[in-house]
Amino acid sequence: MTAKEKLSALRAEMAKRGADILLVPSDDYHQSEYVGDYFKARAYISGFTGSAGTLVITAEDAKLFTDGRYYIQAERQLKDSTIDLMRFGTEGVPTPTEYVISLLSDSKRGLKTLAFDGKCVSAKFADGLRAKLPEGTTLLTDTDYPALIWQDRPALPASKIWAYDIKYSGKSHTDKLSLVRAALCEKKCSALVMSSLCDIAWLYNLRGDDVTNTPVFLSYSIITDTEDKLFVNLDAVSEVRPSLEAEGVSVYDYSEFYAELEKLSGASVMVDKSAISEAIVSALGNANVVDAANPTVILKARKNQTELENTRRAHIAEGLALTKMMIELKYGDSEHDELSVEQRLISYRRESAQRVGVTYLDESFGAICAFGPNAAMAHYSATAESYSKIDKNAPVPMLLIDTGGHYLEGSTDATRTFVLGDIPNEVKLHYTLTACGSLRLANLTFLEGATGVAIDIIARQLMWERGIDFRHGTGHGIGHLLSVHEGPNSIHWGRSAAKIEENMITSDEPGIYVEGSHGIRIENELITIKAMHNEFGQFMRFENITHCPIDLDGIDVAVMDNSDIRMLNEYHKRVYDTLSPYLCNGDKEKLAYLTRAI
Amino acid sequence: MTAKEKLSALRAEMAKRGADILLVPSDDYHQSEYVGDYFKARAYISGFTGSAGTLVITAEDAKLFTDGRYYIQAERQLKDSTIDLMRFGTEGVPTPTEYVISLLSDSKRGLKTLAFDGKCVSAKFADGLRAKLPEGTTLLTDTDYPALIWQDRPALPASKIWAYDIKYSGKSHTDKLSLVRAALCEKKCSALVMSSLCDIAWLYNLRGDDVTNTPVFLSYSIITDTEDKLFVNLDAVSEVRPSLEAEGVSVYDYSEFYAELEKLSGASVMVDKSAISEAIVSALGNANVVDAANPTVILKARKNQTELENTRRAHIAEGLALTKMMIELKYGDSEHDELSVEQRLISYRRESAQRVGVTYLDESFGAICAFGPNAAMAHYSATAESYSKIDKNAPVPMLLIDTGGHYLEGSTDATRTFVLGDIPNEVKLHYTLTACGSLRLANLTFLEGATGVAIDIIARQLMWERGIDFRHGTGHGIGHLLSVHEGPNSIHWGRSAAKIEENMITSDEPGIYVEGSHGIRIENELITIKAMHNEFGQFMRFENITHCPIDLDGIDVAVMDNSDIRMLNEYHKRVYDTLSPYLCNGDKEKLAYLTRAI
Asked: Would you tell me how many other CB atoms lie within 10 Å of the CB of residue B586?
């Protein structure tokens, strides 16, 4: 079917069921950042395959809302679909919620019923929408409209679930469960309902493969003082089921979740409304719903010593791979393009993992390999249809690589920008400001209790001085063999409020992007560790666990303060000391040169 | 009467009226930071004269709660009073509220009624207390207990109220009133009740002298869409009353306020519960009380061009006075002590004001002149009974001067620490870290929207790196011929949330304090101004309006980055260029030396 045919089939179903407006979001049943193919209904209907977008359909028209990352791709993919692109984030363009409200408020159009699948929007989104609905609106939330017309829909993912050994997780399910129960008790709740896949995978020390690059599995969990219920595909869980049951977990089929929810009637139930669906909260009907962050969020963000020690080793392998790639790109003879670099990096990663003695599993996200002006696009992704060759004679011959691996030992995420030929002075300035910003943040000492709001300016100060900024956060938390984007820690001067606590791992990734010319980003991963303790309290600092040279061909020493130069030299000495034992003599020499003191 | 006799007289009154516990706070009827003598009931009863403290009296005992600034003074002043000192802020010591709750919860003691004067506590405090009271507690809030025993109580202050000319205020009362009414309209309120003295003085362009160093007058204001009522002492206001009435202000006597409040029954009334008394909110009885910051707070914080231009000139006079004091202290022959410096500074200020062509009125707060180890005490104040001589051969011969003036043109606040002999290397390090912190913040460029939380670390970074901190905010707003402490702007990594907006004036005052040895603080006043505007938005920066050398005898260049050296030299060049036209040749030469490039 074409997009037009799909729309008209959907409109027939809408008419049959009295739905004036249909909203098709991008969420799965678990409000995941990335979703399995089964849940890509918006992409199926519209043809637009970006990771974020909302489709709003009425009898007369259809609008697709997406953000700046995807304007160009969406334009291309929506051609001939009769769907209008709504460039969300552009001045004057409403949000999907605002647009839906305006439709419902337009008495001329007479639209009264709004339909969406309550399982595919968060309770928080639904609450926000409900607060603004004009009187007389009816919400229809129990029908999966796309399902009515989607004949070759992929099956629900059901990858094999495997046990994540305590030698990697560092803490048993039983121990984690007591911490969760203690948090429940503190909030005077008698039950916790969770649907967020990373939290469940962490709590049960299980992993799967239901979402690309995120080793999780479809699941729900209900925890009370005495019960510990896990809802998963029974075939997928069969191998680990006996050991789960031995730990006291009651294993149910994924489909039994809603029936079990009803048993919580009357209880005080903790749910995180931003991480759980409207359908679940609605099914909790008579329970006393307490909206609070899942206790697992902060518990899993504070890494334990096993996780930290293993992650450090994974980062050595990762840094080794990235450094080998750097050496090859800068000194090798092979022709490369954005796609071949990603592949070569994966093979370096396997090789390095073996040398370091860790186990590489998968990319932790689709790598961004972006040459020249491509690097100015924040979420650029090379495809077989469209990619750039690496040309050392290009106007700005730089390659930005933002990549990471899932290792059994932990997940990595790092960015380097390599200088592969002559670059203009202004680009060197940008490179140096980015490098200094990243180094300054990595070398910061701060008092315990400081948030990501309070420390961000350290990475931006030199840029702001020159009227330059980057439009993304400076840092995000990272999961341990889970999602590479994890809260609550993050670093942004105007957004995050969470404290940067001991044993959290947070990225440090300033950048500068000039459209049509170049993009630079330097990303390190930082473990928060204790510094001195005295009458002023506990000071904290960071351990930088990313090991790969910052390209000195991008550095203009004249821009740097003497402390910047000292920090860069110290960092490079550590990179050399950490990686050189794993390198052959030729590469060792090249690394020595790449990390020479300036 | 002795404290003991006063307590027993009070207890007799409590018994007569059935009050089990009496709480005597430090507030006046306007929740002012500093209060007139009429309101110093806690000091009258206990003998403790510090600016902050709460007294809690029962039939058996009496406790005085005060903070770390006043432990030593309170210990001395409470001797023989039978009042126990509660060192608020020390681990394990309850807050007055916690203590009162614990008394009321102790069934053995059987205390059931709590009395305090509802006019002398904020509505926010009372709300917080009420939320925690054990069931069965009775609150008695309509009696001024101290009044029952205080025979020679000072009269309510009633200084002459004078008009603050528009050539200084920059905006007429009528214009300010429309802005306030617009804010009311936005919040869908039909009335505003204000009792905060600085806000009222600002709104009506009036000044008085009811509080030491703060040119305000006792007053209330009620504003509706059509009414504009000012409540003041009718004698005090007599001279300006005709012009007020010509502007449409209805002038009432201070005592008529509560009767007028009753007329707001049924209306939506905006009050700032942290800046208005419990008694007022309680008198609003049937009105719909909307708790919101007074709209005047943000309006008066955003200075207008007249205020800014005049304040700049006041700061030239102030800087000149402070610089002359510096020259005298460093190169003069006169013997000095902490008290004589304050007096000499006042005469320099008068002289400088004349030379610059501005009008000096008064100190904007009691100056802190603290020599050697005295400077380590945050709120040190020399008295005729206890002060230090300035001895250039002392172990750490440094003098900290934190001082400011009220000029007709605006108020100033600045701190310098002068080095008057040889100081140890560690002290030089501390001096340099403080100077760099202050300079770095003053030279910061930041994106519009950044708060005091986001920028504070710039001043602390070098200290934190070495495990040093200072336990006060880095900056506070400052009033225009009003209080030197003004919100909403402030700078602190863990406290303030207000944006640092264009045309606000904020102090920049890092410090380092080592008990028993020395204290260093360097304070400049900064106007927020616009920097570049581009695709990233509006960048902001600061104009430093404080002009006085940073003592180079305290500077260790080895600790500084090259950018720190550049900023210090640039600052000193500006100080020289600004002040030298007003100096005789001899002083001009000395200033040239004090501001030489390093």
From this structure: 10
Q: Among all chains, which residue has been given the structure tokens 């402490």? A: B485
Give the mean pLDDT of B205-210: 97
pLDDT over 90 at B471, yes or no:
no
Number of Cβ within a 10 Å radius of residue B314: 27
Count of CA atoms in the C-beta half-sphere (13 A) of B379: 13
Q: Which residues of A touch B (CB under 8 A)?
A: 444-447, 449-451, 453-458, 461, 464-465, 467-469, 471, 493-494, 531-532, 534, 536-537, 539, 561-563
Strands of A75-184, DSSP E: 84-87, 113-115, 138-140, 162-163
Q: At residue B89, does pLDDT exceed 80?
A: no
User: Residue B9: how many CB atoms within 10 A of its CB?
Assistant: 16
Structure tokens at B474: 């880095």
Rounded to an integer, what is the distance from CA A26 to the centroid of its chain? 15
**CA-wise closest residue to A545 among A582, A574, A502:** A574
Cα distance from N-terminal residue to C-terminal residue, chain A: 62
> Nearest Cα to B279, choosing from B125, B56, B99?
B125
Rounded Cα gap, residues A140 and A138, in angstroms: 7
Across the range A260-285, mean pLDDT stands at 95
The CA distance from A562 to the nearest CA of chain B, in Å, is 6
Q: Determine whether the interchain pair A454/B494 forms a contact, defined as Cβ–Cβ distance below 8 Å.
A: yes
Q: What percent of chain A clears pLDDT 90, i.e. is strictly above it?
A: 91
Alpha-carbon span B114 to B105, nearest angstrom:
12
Sign, CA torsion A564/A569/A575/A578: negative
Q: Which residues contact A426 (CB under 8 A, 6 or more apart)?
A: none
pLDDT the model gives residue B67: 86
**Chain A environment of B532 (Cβ under 8 Å):** 467
Which range (B63-72, B117-126, B188-197, B288-297) has the least confidence?
A: B63-72
**pLDDT band, very low/low/confident/very high, at A286 (cuts 50, 70, 90):** confident
CA distance B109 to chain A (A): 30
Q: Which residues does B581 contact at the CB level (< 8 Å), separation at least 6? A: none
B69 pLDDT higher than 90:
no
Q: What digits encode the pLDDT tens for the residues A310-343?
A: 999 999 999 999 999 999 999 999 999 999 999 9
Binary contact (A537, B451; C-beta < 8 A): no
Instruction: Tell me the average pLDDT across B379-384.
Output: 84
- Phi/psi of residue A228, nearest 5 degrees: -145, 90
pLDDT in tens, A182-218: 999 999 999 999 999 999 999 999 999 999 999 999 9
Question: CA-based Rg of chain B, rounded to a whole angstrom?
Answer: 25
Model pLDDT, residue A383 = 87
Do residues A231 and A252 lie in contact, with contact meaning Cβ atoms separated by under 8 Å? yes
pLDDT in tens, A334-389: 999 999 999 999 999 999 999 999 999 999 999 999 999 999 987 788 888 889 99
Within B152-249, where are the H helices? 166-169, 173-186, 197-204, 234-237, 241-246
Backbone phi, then psi, for A324, in 5-degree steps? -60, -40
- Mutation test of the interface with chain B: which of A456, A460, A461, choosing the one with the most B Cβ atoms within 10 A? A461
Nearest alpha carbon to residue B138 among B149, B130, B127: B130
Pairs across A and B, CB distance < 8 A: 79
Residues A413 and A402: their CA atoms lie apart, in Å, by: 7
d(CA B75, CA B86): 10
Cα separations (Å) of A407 from A307, A343, A348, B51, B354?
11, 17, 14, 60, 74
Average pLDDT, integer, range B84-94: 87
Torsions phi, psi of A190, nearest 5?
A: -105, -5
